Amino acid sequence: MTEQNYPNQNYPILGIDVSKKQLDVCVLQADEQRMSLKVNNTPTGFNKLMQWLKKKNVEPAAAGLESTSVYSMGIAVSLHEQGMVVYLANPSQVHSYMRAEMRRAKTDKADAEAIANFIAAMSKKLHPWQPIPQHYQELRDLVRYLHQITRSRATIKNRMDKISYTTSAAKERVRKLINADLAHYDKQISSIKKDIRKCISKHPDLKCRYERITTAPAIGEITAVTYMSEVPNVKVFSCAKKLVAFTGISPRISHSGIRHPESQPISKMGDAILRQAVYMAALTAKKHNPNMTGFAARLRDDGKKKPKVVTVAVARKLLHLLYAMDKNETSFDPNYQKQHQIKGTI
User: Fold this and answer.
1) With contact defined as beta carbons under 8 Å apart, do 79 and 63 qualify?
2) C-beta contacts of 91-97 below 8 A and 24+ residues apart
3) pLDDT of residue 338
4) What is d(CA 233, CA 231) in angstroms, rounded to the nearest whole number?
5) Domain spans, the chain
6) Is 27 helix (H, G, I), strand (E, B) or coil?
7) Residue environment code for 117-154, b if the CB has 16+ CB neighbours within 10 A, otherwise e
């Protein structure tokens, strides 16, 4: 396979395959020469990488790695502090690129090389990664942990619902153990919520933003803090539609030949935590938010919209509302639509 050089991209490029314990690094030069290194995914490993680059007289213009939750954060921050342009690529994009290249090898070293090639080919369409402010990172970690333990509690609660069908002598013993687990999770959830409130109260910008967002009916504490932690700066989105796409609520259009279904599934290509929070808020909004109840009623009266489709449409409208309030730094105005004669659309 003939390699392709991308003249508009600055070289050298670091491609890094991240795992829990190790980093596989590939340095891609403009002349298509490559060098490889493997280091530990620790601060000591980061220093070893920088010393190796210095020894090889290599000054990378950009570095690319897949977004792998917390495992990629350490090296991303370290490289950013060194002045490099860092790209956090979506693993699905990299995987699709590798398939397009008809790659047959699947090793950590080959993945690092593929990531470097991907950055070279797609850098114009990628946005450089920027670390979020520390207080937003603190809020994000707390909120994500809250969602994790809430899901764990729901799992335990489901076990309790099955106990009534148990016929063995262990029934009461298991019930007591499950009650103990539920009590533990309730205590943890209460504690983490207190930590989230403290985090918000000690930072004026967080406090002001939280108070502004929660003026909208149906936007409660969990929805507000989830939105704030997942979208630290709404101005990175040029329009509300891009925020909707980021959340994964935009429709996935699928037309072929004479097949043109009226209802399309949502893409679900985006932030799952925010998507779940907004969807749950939409269930409340279509009943208690005056601006949403009429909108939901019109869709239902159509006779063509299923309940879940209506809820998704309300969730999308809620995101448009949050975007407008957040970007313009204004509180909720129930008369805004009437004054501006805006009609709700799906």
Assistant:
1) yes
2) 91/66, 91/67, 92/269, 93/118, 93/122, 94/66, 94/118, 97/121, 97/122
3) 63
4) 5
5) 13-125, 133-202, 217-254+262-346
6) strand
7) bbbbbbbeebeebeeeeeebebbbebbeebbebeeebe
Q: 10 is written with which tokens? A: 């600055």
Strand partners, 251: 266
Residue 243 phi, psi dihedral angles, 5° rounding = -65, -40
Pull the structure tokens for residue 309.
């489709």
Per-residue pLDDT reduced to its tens digit, 230-265: 999 999 999 999 999 999 988 777 666 766 666 677
Q: What is the pLDDT of residue 156?
A: 93
Phi, psi angle pair for 164, to nearest 5° = -60, -20
Q: Nearest-CA neighbor of 330 among 200, 209, 203?
A: 209
Cα separation, 96 vs 108, whole angstroms: 16
- Residue 84's contacts (CB-CB under 8 Å, 6 or more residues apart) are 14, 60, 61, 62, 63
Distance CA 60, CA 72 (A): 18
Helix 272-288 vs helix 240-247: angle between axes, to the nearest 10 degrees? Answer: 110
For residue 66 the two structure tokens come to 């897949």
Count of all residues that appear for the chain in the document: 346
The tens digit of pLDDT for each residue in 142-182 reads 999 999 999 999 999 998 888 888 888 898 999 999 999 99
Is 291 exposed, middle or buried, given 0-12, 13-18 or 19+ CB atoms closer than 10 A?
Answer: buried
Strands (DSSP E) found in the chain: 13-18, 22-28, 34-40, 62-66, 85-89
212 burial (CB, 10 Å; 0-12 / 13-18 / 19+) is middle
pTM reported for the whole predicted model? 0.86
Q: Which two tokens stand for residue 329?
A: 């730094």
Q: For 34, phi and psi rounded to 5 degrees?
A: -130, 145
- What is the DSSP pairing of strand 62-66 with strand 34-40? unpaired
Whether domain 13-125 has CATH 3.40.1710.10: no
Q: How confident is the model at residue 7 (pLDDT cuts 50, 70, 90)?
A: very low
* Cis peptide bond prior to 133, omega within 30° of 0: no
